[in-house]
């Protein structure tokens, strides 16, 4: 059993014999764990996270015992920073971006796998650029340090290239897609729904996608580590809501697509085209992913690969600790 710090032991002993006096009485009373059900949840433009909008509009958070301020970020990077600085309690983000945050000292815990990207992250190039190898010397726009920068580096490595072989143009993802359409760059690495924008450029095509790197981009519900410790009932409510939302979407598909397409600022038909590129995880797929293993479906294995990659390429300076990063207790507690 882990022992309590000496100062806490001494305080407990003095409280027991009444030696702290009036000024020390507050030290004799343990602060009760918070029972507040209010939480701020961040999300941004990704098909695997738009179900949170459905949850809000259908009152599913309240039905699962949590009061949620759902905060939409136009910039994915801003959502990462908000969780890292404690401005929000939970966020929707990828494994590699979570690892990058943890390597910088953030205390975060992954409690749910929303989905795997199976094609909705793409490297899209102009006419005449038909492969990743053709990117050598070309201008490529990408949100530096975020998920599609990681995809770009993976694709370059597979083509025996490095970032030094291209002209990297760092931009937020929405601006990067717009710059590509405007002819300012030769290629863009982006995620849906911004891929829809990028592909409006005549002659453009995807030359690599996340489907070619199975398991490399899992998307998660990530919470502040203190939230797990201090208000586990809130975390459970969020996880329960996620699975309740998936059931509602299954039973009300057209209505759900309408809600999610509106949030993504795309047409329902465009949104339907994202289905194959985002694989929403079931409860069992969650449990399988959280189970330690040595294949791409196992989060611990994928995390080790990502850590080696992001440190080796300079996306992170320090190797983050994987201790307590993954917590499957809430998925396990979801009613089957």
Automatic annotation (TrEMBL):
Coiled coil: none annotated. Keywords: Signal. It comes from the Bacteria. It is found in: Periplasm. Its main location: periplasm. Residues 1-27 form the signal peptide. NCBIfam families: SsuA_fam. Belongs to the bacterial solute-binding protein SsuA/TauA family. This is NitT/TauT family transport system substrate-binding protein.
């Amino acid at each position: 059993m882990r022992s309590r710090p000496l100062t806490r032991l001494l305080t407990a002993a003095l409280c027991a014999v009444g030696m702290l006096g009036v000024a020390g009485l507050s030290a004799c009373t343990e602060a009760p764990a918070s029972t507040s059900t209010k939480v701020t949840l961040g999300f941004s433009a990704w098909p695997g996270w738009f179900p949170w909008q459905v949850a809000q509009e259908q009152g599913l958070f309240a039905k699962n015992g949590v009061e949620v301020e759902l905060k939409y970020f136009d910039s994915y990077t801003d959502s990462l920073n908000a969780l890292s600085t404690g401005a929000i309690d939970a966020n929707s983000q990828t494994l590699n971006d979570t690892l990058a945050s943890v390597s910088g000292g953030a205390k975060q815990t992954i409690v749910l796998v929303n989905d795997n990207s199976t094609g909705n992250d793409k490297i899209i190039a102009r006419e005449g650029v038909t492969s990743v190898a053709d990117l050598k010397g070309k201008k490529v726009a990408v949100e530096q340090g975020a998920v599609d920068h990681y995809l770009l580096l993976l694709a370059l490595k597979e083509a025996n290239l490095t970032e030094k072989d291209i002209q990297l143009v760092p931009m937020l993802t929405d601006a990067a897609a717009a710059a590509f359409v405007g002819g300012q760059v030769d290629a863009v690495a982006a995620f849906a729904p911004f891929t829809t924008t990028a592909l409006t450029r005549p002659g453009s095509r995807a030359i690599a996608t996340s489907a070619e790197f199975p398991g490399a981009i899992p998307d998660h519900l990530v919470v502040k580590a203190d939230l797990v410790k201090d208000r586990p009932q809130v975390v459970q409510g969020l996880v329960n809501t996620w699975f309740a939302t998936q059931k509602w979407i299954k039973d009300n598909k057209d209505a759900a697509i309408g809600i999610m397409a509106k949030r993504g600022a795309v047409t329902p038909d465009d949104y339907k085209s994202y289905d194959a590129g985002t694989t929403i995880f079931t409860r069992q797929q969650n449990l399988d992913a959280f189970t330690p293993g040595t294949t791409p479906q196992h989060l611990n294995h994928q995390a080790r690969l990502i850590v080696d990659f992001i440190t080796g390429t300079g996306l992170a300076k320090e190797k983050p600790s994987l201790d307590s990063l993954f917590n499957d207790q809430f998925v396990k507690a979801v009613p089957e």
